[in-house]
C-alpha cells in the first residue's frame, strides 16, 4: 500500500518542506480531545532530532488534549536530563519546558514493572510459527503504560539496517522500544540464532519483524508512524513517509536499503571502526562491528576504536560474566547458559560474529578477531574474550593500507558485491 512520502535516495528535504509535510499529514489525524504519545528514539540513533521533533510538536500541540513524548529505550540505559535536553533541543542546558511547553519528554521505564501494562499473550505455538520453528515459548506482551493508555500513538524515528530485525524502525519502536525485557530477549535471541551477518540489512518481514508485528498488533489505540531516512554521515533528511507503522516503515526501508548499504568488490583485510560519541558503551558501539562483519575477510581483525568508552554495558552487567562468543558456543552449551538473559546472549553473539564451537574439545573458533581500542582496560578485555589495543596507537595504524577505516561507524552496512540482491 502506498503512503504519503516526500524525498527519496540522495534528496535533501529542506526545513520548510519537512515542516509542511509533517503539518499536512499529521493534520489529517483526528487529535482533538485525545491523549497523544509521541514515541521517539534515544540518542544512539543518528538524526537531527531537534529539527524533527519541533516540526511534529508544532503539528500536534494545539490540537491534542494532552501530549507526551516517550523515549523508546528498549533496554538501553535511562537518559539523564541533560542528555535528553541535548538530544531533543540541541543543548545540554536547554529548558525543555520552554522549548516544548505542554509536552513532557520521559524515558521508557523498562526496569519498573509498575510502568508496564500487559496487553495480551502470544502462544508458544504462534511464536514457533513466526520464528520459523527456531523458538517455541509463549510470552505476555508488556508495554509502556503511558503508551498503552494514550488514545493515539505516533512513532517518530529513522529507518536503518539492523542486526536483530533486518531493517529497524516501524513497530520496533513498540517492541523492543517500549516493551519489557522478556519479549525483547526472545526477539533478540531469534535474531541471534539466525545470526547478525545473515540478518542485518535484510528487507521485508523477517522472523523477528513478524514477532514484533504480532506483539505490536496487541497495543490498543490508533497507531501512526513518521518514518524517515537520514543521509549517512550527515544530518540531511533524504526521505520521509507517514502512515501506519507497517506501511510507513516498508516505504522507508526501500530507501535505506539503497542509501545505507555499501557493497564492496573485495573483502576488507581488516577494519578500524571509529565509533562516534553518541554510542556510550560497547552495548551500543558494537554496531561498528555488526555493520562491518559481512565485508571483512576470514581471519581479519575488526578494531572498535572508541577512546571515550570505558564501559562494556551500562545496563547489562551479565556481559562481564559471559564475555563475547559465537552463537554455537551458547547453543552447544545451552544448559549452562539458558538462564542468562537472552538479550545479553544475543548481544554477545552479535558482537563476536560468526564462529564454531567443538563441545568435545571446548575449543571455539571465530571467523574474525575482535579488538577493543577503548578506555576499557586490557584485563577486562582479556576476561571477556576480546583483544586489546592501546587507543593511542590507532591513529598511526589508520595509515596502514591493510586496515580499512570506517568513520562514524555504526550506521552504514558493508556487504560484498556478490551479496547484492538481484533486481
Your description of this structure?
By secondary structure, the protein is an alpha/beta fold. The protein folds into two domains: 5-259, 3-Layer(aba) Sandwich (Rossmann fold); 263-419, 2-enoyl-CoA Hydratase, Chain A, domain 1 (Alpha-Beta Complex), CATH 3.90.226.30. 32% of the residues lie in helices and 23% in strands. The protein contains 18 helices and 20 strands. The strands form six sheets. A seven-stranded mixed β-sheet has the order 1-11-10-7-2-3-4, sandwiched between helices. Strand 15 and strand 16 (363-366) form a beta hairpin. Helix 7 (181-194) runs antiparallel to helix 9 (207-216). The longest helix is centred in the middle third of the chain and has 15 residues, at 245-259. The two termini are 20 Å apart.
Draw up the topology in text.
Blueprint: E1 5-7, H1 15-26, E2 35-40, H2 49-60, E3 66-71, H3 81-89, H4 96-99, E4 105-107, E5 116-122, H5 124-130, E6 139-144, H6 145-149, E7 152-158, E8 161-162, E9 166-167, H7 181-194, H8 196-199, H9 207-216, E10 222-230, E11 237-243, H10 245-259, E12 261-264, E13 270-274, H11 282-285, H12 287-290, E14 301-306, H13 318-322, H14 327-331, H15 334-337, H16 342-352, E15 355-358, E16 363-366, E17 369-374, H17 378-383, E18 387-388, H18 394-397, E19 403-406, E20 413-416
Parallel strand pairs: 2-3, 2-7, 3-4, 7-10, 12-20, 13-14, 13-19, 14-17, 17-18
Antiparallel strand pairs: 1-11, 5-6, 8-9, 10-11, 15-16
Helix pairs in contact: 1-2, 7-9, 7-16
